[in-house]
Amino acid sequence: MNKLEIKKLTKTFGKKNANSNITLTLGNGVYGLLGPNGAGKTTLMKQIVTLTKPTSGEIIYNGQSIYEKEDEYRNIIGYLPQEFGAYKNFTAKQFLKYVAALKGIDKNKASQKIDELLNLVGLYEVRNKAVGKFSGGMKRRVGIAQVLLNDPKIVVLDEPTAGLDPQERSRFRNLIADISKEKIIILSTHIISDIEAVARETIMIKNGSVIIKGNHKDILTGMKGKVYKITTDKENEVIDIQRDYKVVNLQRGADITELRVVSDKMPLYASAQSIEPRFEDVYMFYFDLENTKEV
Amino acid sequence: MIQWELKKIFKAKTGIIIIVVFILLCGSMVFIKPELETQKSNQNEQHELIKDTRKAEVIAQEKLDIKIGTVKEMANSKEKDDFSKGIKQISEKKLKAMEDTTYKDVSFWKVFDYRATNAFMAFCMVIILIIVCCNIYTDEIISTVENLILTSKNKNRALYSKLSLGILIPTVLYGVYLGIQFIITALQYGMPLDGKLQAIRITDNPLVRDAYTIIQFIAVKIGVMLLILVTLGVIACLCSFITKSSIASTSGFMIFIVTAKLLTMVKPIPGNIRMVLESINFINLIFYFRGFAGAYYGNVKFFGTNFDLINLCLGILAVTIVAAITLSIVSFKKILVR
């Protein structure tokens, strides 16, 4: 069993608190990290993978500070950064061999593992092709393969499905589900459906602080009575509702317009009726939908 | 990891550029040589080149006699200042070490010495160092592999490999260059002979800083040139570690190279500091190297103590290397994981 404890973690850049007093305890499973741009998700992940040091607070893995034996800790990390590239002139296989060397994996073992992973991510046939000639999605798959090279205990994925087509996203979700049993997987994304599909728990971050952590059922239960459907046939009313409430969805029919809104209180419209919350409502309730690229 | 670093360089376009520059450098040296001891030419008032047509041995003996005459003159100097006293001592030593005053064929050494520490060679090496070392880490940022390196188990090995390339690349390239020049010069001027004779036989200026033999003199110059190239290699790597882009890194490196030269033009700087800066600035070290290595410039006074100017400068170069390595290591621990 892996246990990653984040205690009172604060990271300051100049006068700005990118992370403020974050405390979390993570066990095996997938954790979806959700928040708008600039919320502090990437900073948190960078601290977990030792890319940047906290201003205060600590991160403890299985009872030991991660900075005590950094090299050993890095040996159990798999990290896919938000901007993942590779050497354009290297083939996929060569690049993975290089990453294997970085991760201190024995040459013979690495070669076998690389073939396995290339198969897993569907790149075996193009293993000897230069990465520079790969599409964005294929590069991303190389990125996922390099994450898994050292059979990591902690996997940190920053926007892993950005730029992937629906088929690749589905393949990726299945892959994450397959490997998540004995690992802590932290998955940051704007794509709420990805989190809904694979995450055991969701951590929502706003202005550098954790505002919600819990499983989907609990989070959705907490949203009950905060999501409403309003129907109207008056265009000026649609404008008023958009101005006064957070509108998650707007559907225009032939005569009437249906709006899905989130609100602490029952909207003052006769047609307003409480409905079952969905995960995107949660996001919208705490953040602005304009920050989500896809739902 | 060094193997991987080299693989990255040679799989990228920079590898091809380096090879081309290096081949051009080695090839062009075939045509570059100094005026041999057996040759003499002057320009007349119409700027026409007048060649001395006397026998080669006669010309060479005449040149050697003039140099020995100068050394004798220095040895008999009655001047009392520190510089003249120093020159007098060295000259006496040289005369004592001189067993034979007849000309011997030292063409190989004369040409090899010229090629081994040529300004064009140093310039090409600096270009290569800019291409390789100034981009050694910034290339990782551009290719976005930086984060993978910094979160890997062998992060430190990877970073130290990059730093060690700052020493290895100039050392290996210069070593290969010397080997090639040795062979080319031997093919053109015959095998090296009489390397144990006094170094003044191959220098135009007889004020060599000690009674060096030819081999010792060339070895000292090669050592100093290597020290300069390694210093530049390590500084270029440091610039790459502490900046975010190739342009910033190269600019930082260029600023480092020209700063000391620019400071020599600042009038309020005290004379002793300016003397050091005149000798140690990288512009002069690269383009006027012959006036630095193996020469004697007397002492310079700091805090009431006399320091041999050239030795002080060499010490500063050594300290610069150590400082650059230390700062690189600090950058691994502090700057890259800010």
How does this structure look, described?
The complex is a heterodimer of chains A (295) and B (338). With 295 residues, chain A is an alpha/beta fold. Chain A folds into 2 domains: 4-220, P-loop containing nucleotide triphosphate hydrolases (Rossmann fold), CATH 3.40.50.300; 225-275, no CATH class. In chain A, 33% of the residues lie in helices and 28% in strands. Chain A has a 6-stranded mixed sheet, with helices on both faces. Chain A has a 4-stranded antiparallel sheet with strand order 2-1-4-5, covered by helices on one side. In chain A, strand 12 and strand 13 form a beta hairpin. The longest helix of chain A has 14 residues, at 107-120. The two termini of chain A are 32 Å apart. Chain B is mainly alpha-helical and 338 residues long. Chain B has a domain at 103-335. Chain B is built from 14 helices and 4 strands. Chain B has helices spanning 2-11, 13-28, 56-75, 82-97, 107-116, 119-132, 138-142, 146-150, 155-189, 214-242, 246-263, 271-280, 282-287, 309-335; strands spanning 41-43, 49-51, 299-302, 305-308. In chain B, the strands form 2 sheets. Chain B has a two-stranded antiparallel ribbon. In chain B, strands 3-4 form a two-stranded antiparallel ribbon. Chain B is globular. The two termini of chain B are 24 Å apart. Chain A binds chain B through residues 49-53, 71-72, 74-75, 77, 79, 81, 83-90, 98-99, 101-104, 146, 150, and chain B through 1, 4, 7-8, 11-12, 143-145, 147-156, 158, 337-338.
What topology emerges from the helices and strands here?
The complex is a heterodimer of chains A (about 300) and B (about 350).
Chain A (H helix, E strand, L loop, with lengths): L3 E10 L2 E11 L2 E6 L6 H8 L7 E6 L2 E2 L4 H5 L2 E4 L11 H11 L4 H14 L15 H13 L5 E5 L7 H14 L4 E5 L3 H7 L2 E6 L2 E6 L1 H7 L4 E6 L2 H10 L1 E7 L4 E6 L10 E2 L4 H8 L9
Parallel strand pairs in A: 3-8, 3-9, 6-7, 7-8
Antiparallel strand pairs in A: 1-2, 1-4, 4-5, 9-10, 11-13, 11-14, 12-13
Chain B lengths: L1 H10 L1 H16 L12 E3 L5 E3 L4 H20 L6 H16 L9 H10 L2 H14 L5 H5 L3 H5 L4 H35 L24 H29 L3 H18 L7 H10 L1 H6 L11 E4 L2 E4 H27 L3
Antiparallel strand pairs in B: 1-2, 3-4
Helix pairs in contact in B: 1-2, 2-6, 3-4, 5-9, 6-10, 9-10, 9-14, 10-11, 10-14, 12-14
